């Protein structure tokens, strides 16, 4: 990785992180939904974008900017894990199982769709 690649990662992250915050805030405040909705949305969108990036076979600079930087900052496995753990410890088992199932099914489907569209 070069200094330029590191700057591209930082630029992508500077776009992805605020977008994740805005989607999470919008889903809680605007939709009056449970907090997990925002996490599912950003993870599915990030999966689609990353699948599209891989399918398009763009060079390493795009991977640094979009894949590592933008998608890395937009998506969040740690928040997903924490939300599932919280639902389990609060005995909201149905919510926990739905969160896992929807996140995996929609995320894999979005990654596949992005790949297929650009390949």
Task: Report on this structure.
By secondary structure, this protein is mainly α. It contains five helices and no strands. The chain is globular and about 45 Å long. It starts with a helix and ends with a helix. The model has no long low-confidence stretch (mean pLDDT 93).
Tally of contiguous helical segments: 5
CA gyration radius, whole angstroms: 15 Å
Main sheet properties: none
User: What kind of assembly state do the chains in view correspond to?
Assistant: single chain
Which percent bin holds the helix content? over 70%
Instruction: Assign the structural class, choosing from mainly alpha, mainly beta, alpha/beta, alpha+beta, or little secondary structure.
Output: mainly alpha
Name the overall outline. globular
Q: Runs with pLDDT <50, length 5+?
A: none
What is the string of helix and strand elements? HHHHH
Number of strands: 0
Distance between the terminal alpha carbons, to the nearest Å?
A: 26 Å
What is the overall pLDDT average? 93
Query: Strand fraction band?
Result: under 5%
Put the structure in a nutshell.
The chain is an all-alpha fold.
Describe the secondary-structure layout.
Layout (H helix, E strand, L loop, with lengths): L2 H28 L5 H21 L3 H15 L2 H13 L3 H26 L1
Throw out a few tags for this protein.
globular, mainly alpha, 5 helices
